[in-house]
Amino acid sequence: MIAPAESLALENISRSFGAVRALHGASLVVRDRTVHAVLGENGAGKTTLMRVAFGLVRPDAGTIRVRGRTVTIASPAAAIALGLGMVHQHFSSVPAMTVVENVALGGRGVYRAKHVRARVREVCELVGFELDPDARASDLSVGAQQRLEIVTALARGARTLILDEPTAVLAPREADDLLGMLRRFADTGGTVVLITHKLPEALAVADDVTVLRHGQTVLAQAVGAVDSVRLAQAMIGGAPPIETRHERRAPGAIVVATRALGVRDARGVLRAKDISLEVRAGEIIGIAGVDGAGQHELLLCLAGRLAPSTGHIERPADVGFVPEDRHRDALILDFDVAENLALRGSGAARGRIAWRPIRTCAAALLTEYDVRAPSADTRVGTMSGGNQQKLVLARELESRPPLVIVENPTRGLDIAATAAVHDRLRNARDGGAAVTVYSSDLDEVLGLADRLIVMFDGRAREVPLDRDAAGRAMLGAT
Amino acid sequence: MTDALTSCLEASVRTATPLALAALGELLVERAGVINIGLEGIVLGGAFGALLGAGGNSLTIGFIAGCAAGVAIAALFALFAVTMRADQIITGTAVNLLVLGLTGALYRGLYGATGAALTIPTTGSVAVPLLARIPVLGPTLFDQPPPTYLVYLTVPLLWWWLYRTHSGLAVRAIGERPDSVRVAGIDAHRWRWMTLLMSGGLGGVAGATLVLSQSGTFAEGMSAGRGFIAIAIVVLGRWRPMGVAIASLLFGAASALQYLFQAMGWRAPYQLFLALPYVLTLLALAGLAGRKIEAPAALGRAA
């Protein structure tokens, strides 16, 4: 068999941001009509490399070839003209506009909604998507928003599709569907570059795999020629971190209990319905559910951040709360470490702040929780995501609250930081706290939980700790 | 009574004209996510430009000069607020202060400290054949100075551009999410510049209208807050061309009512009527509170 021609080639790409070398000498050669997985830890340079390919970042050095021709890609417009399409991790559609308007963006001349609508239908049929052309992007579910991004890229004529961590926001079934669609797209003449940090995903769907570490290509092979151990070693550059073993003890007294709880979101929509559950000291309750199934409002209510609209809740006053979006809800990036630590409970605090003890305590916490920051005066915005998250955990767990509520605790963290966060949560449980964890990554929930609750359409159901059963329950099947 | 009504309506449209021109321009830049407080300065600069241009007794050159002055001031704003990504509110305020000072100084320098006797010819009204003969509506809508007809043209044109062309779609998208339109191959800075220049032209003509179609003279600070009112009109008009036209008329009518009531011998203080449009704006904003806010999401944010 003759190897297919190359579709996209990036060779010896280097790029620095200030003193940080994001890429130095990274290469990626994607064969035509294949799915090519790009693996790497956070900060390995995967996204930067793809941004170079899409004209969003100018490389300092290196060459780019598209279908064998050396090109300069100065802007996304140039990349689109070369038949490249990118689906970003953070969606780029305009929320206030309809599917049709979003797809039409970037065109020229008179805008005829009818023509674009027909084009959307055509592309959807081609790839087997369901998408209402006249729905507003803000009303779409996360999965549908992603389909919109893919349809947009294809409608603009993309033959090579670059997707940045596309399954991170999807339920397992949706993720499988997406990977299946990408496979078919490659089989019918397209090319896919799949950026991911999930090994099984890469092994399941890709033809070739490239691993980046510290801005360099450390491995580039056909999937058949490697196994997951070698890939993992290539990604982290050594043996994978070993998780500490934990002895489970029998759960203790009930810490939080709800009866027929209903919670509305900020817009007044009833998100969580008729929820009765209890969490005991010394156990981790895992919560799973597709985005918008009501878990977010339930957790906010358990944490005392949102008042219930109906039903009863009994909860302790002191709750350790790690919200999903640490930049928006947990930290003030322009404040330093000590100031961010002082924020806990500051809504109820009065009078003068005694900074000296806070700074002493901050320094101790940095060591204890292995937060890599030069000192308590370090501005939090300059720290890495993993260290920021460890800092939030340190703040929320330090007072040993009886109840700990955690949402997507390892979003955007690499393997080592993820292991550290998981360890902390298990320690909190072993120390007698009632812990409730929600993650959009079902495997993470299953790995942590002692009991599993699945949310669907606002209702909660306890499900055995089993991947298939949980996956079905997340989509409403019984 | 019909006469009084007709003249009141006619005055409403006349007063509304410069407001509508300025507000339609502001509508455009706000759809692209820029809030141009400097509109007040653009209107004032347009008025002064019109005075200079009409010095040779040509009204056409007056309007062109007013338009050009507006474009030049808008370009200054765009240079700072778009290209250099300076804060839009501060840039706009600086532009206003600059234009106020500059026109004042130039006016005194050129025409002496008083400049009181300065009068220039005005356009007068141009009746549209046939249409002007419709009772009440005819003289109200179709016997007006030329800038009013420019409003009639601009409203549908602007609507068509915003909703029926790809560039209009791009402008609306920039107002919602300037950072993400880039990946669609759209140059946000370029379109913000374009809309600002267009709005400068419209705002300049609005200022020229004050001089060349209404007062026949220039006075320091004669824009008298019309640029700011135009910004309120955009909010009241819900960022839509037709809405802005109607909201302008409402503000025009509120000013005209004041004359009508004075003519009818009402003794209510005139400030009450002056305040009416602002009260309406507040009520309209309060009415929005419960509903989905329609303002461009990225209004005021750098791109």
CATH topology of chain B: ABC transporter involved in vitamin B12 uptake, BtuC
CATH architecture of the largest domain in chain A: 3-Layer(aba) Sandwich
Beta-strand content bin of chain A:
25-35%
Give the number of DSSP strands of chain B: 2
CATH homologous superfamily (4th level) name of the largest domain in chain A: P-loop containing nucleotide triphosphate hydrolases
Number of strands of chain A: 19
Largest sheet of chain A: 6 strands, mixed
Our count of domains of chain A comes out at: 3
CATH class category label of the largest domain in chain A: Alpha Beta
| Poorly predicted sequence stretches spanning 5 or more consecutive residues of chain B | none
Protein described:
- The complex is a heterodimer of chains A (478) and B (303).
- Chain A has 3 domains: 6-236, P-loop containing nucleotide triphosphate hydrolases (Rossmann fold, 3-Layer(aba) Sandwich); 241-318 and 399-478, P-loop containing nucleotide triphosphate hydrolases (Rossmann fold, 3-Layer(aba) Sandwich), CATH 3.40.50.300; 338-398, no CATH class.
- Helix content of chain A is 33%, strand content 26%.
- Chain A is built from 16 helices and 19 strands.
- A 6-stranded mixed sheet of chain A has the order 6-7-8-3-9-10, with helices on both faces.
- Chain B is globular and about 60 Å long.
- Chain B starts with a helix and ends in a 15-residue tail after the last helix.
- Chain B has helices spanning 2-31, 39-53, 59-83, 88-111, 137-142, 146-164, 166-176, 178-181, 188-215, 226-236, 241-263, 270-288, and strands spanning 126-127, 143-144.
- Chain B contains 12 helices and 2 strands; from the N terminus they run ααααβαβααααααα.
- The chains are: A alpha/beta (478), B mainly alpha (303).
- At the A-B interface, α2 of A face α7 of B.
